[in-house]
Design brief:
- The structure is a single chain.
- The protein has about 400 residues and is α+β, with helices and mostly antiparallel strands.
- Helix content is about 40%, strand content about 20%.
- It contains 16 helices and nine strands.
- The strands form two sheets. Strands 3-5-1-9-8 form a five-stranded antiparallel β-sheet, with no helix packed on it. Strands 4-2-6-7 form a four-stranded antiparallel β-sheet, with no helix packed on it.
- Helix 2 runs parallel beside helix 8, helix 10 crosses helix 11 and helix 14 packs antiparallel against helix 15.
- It is elongated.
- The protein starts with 7 loop residues before the first strand and ends with a helix.
């Protein structure tokens, strides 16, 4: 089981306060023109950050902030250099900091770094974590949030089930990158306080894309690398009882959080499938969209990293099909559908495509009267009906 990706990912700010007792430029004790250079391992953006140059001092004061974007950074390297006249910028002191050994949960961290061969440097580290959700093991996320299924999954599923079940191509059509990035940042800041806006409800494809992005960035697929061969064996079984028996055994061996998440997702996707006449997302289409995300589609540990195996991808799709076709058999009766964390905006609810019962209306006027009947039953409010009536006035006149 993978705990989390190594290193830190996010925004790292190093507040350089000052240094003292730096090594002199020569044996005569001449002062320096020092500045500080920061680099990270394995990398950061920008690749290198530096302070301004201080003139003629062995005890410089900076009070400057150097900010870099780090991706799985494990160490930072700090070097104090001397800006010499002839361009030979000698290193006069250096130090390294092991980022993974620092606890940032309490806020900023102050350090006094001993420099080699002489002197010390005072810095304050500030870190904004970008891996507290995405790329983190799902069991850790659940333990941190105190839930069985991560909040990002339950809230995205609730939004899709409220506004996206009749949306054509849901989970197949990608959302707007800018919208997905904004919602992603909100969940990273605090999953417990996220509330989708009315604008988000209108772009339900972005919500579905965010859910898939979270699953795609897990350290390993939800059905795990270890059990991928077992799931593949299940779909190769000749009889349905044998297939389900192997599948149940594999599901029982999943970590608790993985098993709870895959059960919630399968029940959710069954609700999507029930609306396939409108959204055109049946079992086969959903399996193609979700197979490589939920189950490893590489050729195994001996295959080159990141290379997708056609056979493994096909097996992944078949596994998801079996899970969706036998959801109740494998996971039991569906629980109550996940609820939105807050009441949905009335305006967004009014825009949801209505599902009318009975024979299809033969004219626009009959459609309006059917909607009026639904309003009397409390499905739509009168304001929504009147707005719809005004908008369709032209069609009514043409309808006669």
């Amino acid at each position: 089981r993978v705990a989390r990706m190594p290193g830190l990912s996010g925004k790292l700010t190093i507040h350089v306060l000052g240094a003292k007792d730096l090594r002199a430029r020569d044996f005569l004790g001449h002062a320096l023109d020092p500045y500080v250079v920061l680099t990270c391992a394995p990398a950061c953006v920008p690749r290198k950050a530096k302070t301004s140059v201080k003139k003629k001092t062995l005890n410089p004061t900076w009070t400057e902030a150097l900010t870099v974007a780090v991706q799985r950074a494990e160490r930072i390297f700090v070097a104090v250099k001397d800006r010499a006249i002839l361009g030979s910028n000698d290193v006069i002191g250096e130090a390294a900091v092991d980022l993974e050994s620092i606890d940032f949960t309490g806020g900023d961290v102050s350090l006094c770094l001993p420099l080699a061969p002489q002197g010390e440097l005072r810095i304050v580290l500030e870190f904004a974590d970008d891996s507290c959700l995405f790329g983190l093991d799902i069991s850790t996320v659940c333990a941190r949030e105190g839930v069985e299924v991560p909040l990002i999954l339950t809230r995205c599923m609730a939004a899709v089930e409220t506004f996206g079940l009749d949306c054509e191509g849901i989970y197949r059509v990608p959302g707007a990158k800018q919208t997905v990035d904004r919602m992603r940042a909100a969940f990273i800041r605090n999953s417990a306080t996220v509330q989708f806006s009315e604008q988000d409800y209108q772009d339900v494809h972005s919500i579905a894309s965010l859910l898939k992005q979270y699953l795609r960035e897990l350290p390993e697929p939800l059905l795990t690398e270890e059990l991928s061969p077992v799931f593949a064996q299940a779909v190769s079984a000749e009889s349905a009882p044998e297939k389900l028996a192997i599948m149940r055994d594999a599901l029982a061996r999943l970590p608790t959080a993985n098993r709870a998440a895959i059960a919630a997702l399968c029940h959710h996707f069954r609700r999507v499938i029930q609306h396939q006449t409108a959204n055109r997302m049946g079992v086969a289409n959903l399996a193609v969209c979700l197979g490589p995300t939920l189950l490893s589609s590489t050729g195994g540990p001996d295959s080159p990293k990141g290379v997708v195996s056609a056979r493994a991808a096909s097996d992944a799709n078949k596994v998801i099909q079996v899970l969706l076709e036998h959801t109740v058999d494998l996971f039991g009766a569906p629980p109550r559908a996940p609820a939105l964390c807050s009441p949905a905006p009335a305006q967004a609810a009014e825009r949801r495509t209505p599902t009318l019962t009975g024979p299809a209306p033969r004219s626009m006027s009959r459609l309006l009267f059917q909607r009026f009947d639904r309003d009397q039953a409390g499905v739509l409010d009168r304001a929504a009906f009147l707005q719809f009536w005004d908008d369709m006035g032209l069609f009514l006149r043409a309808d006669g």
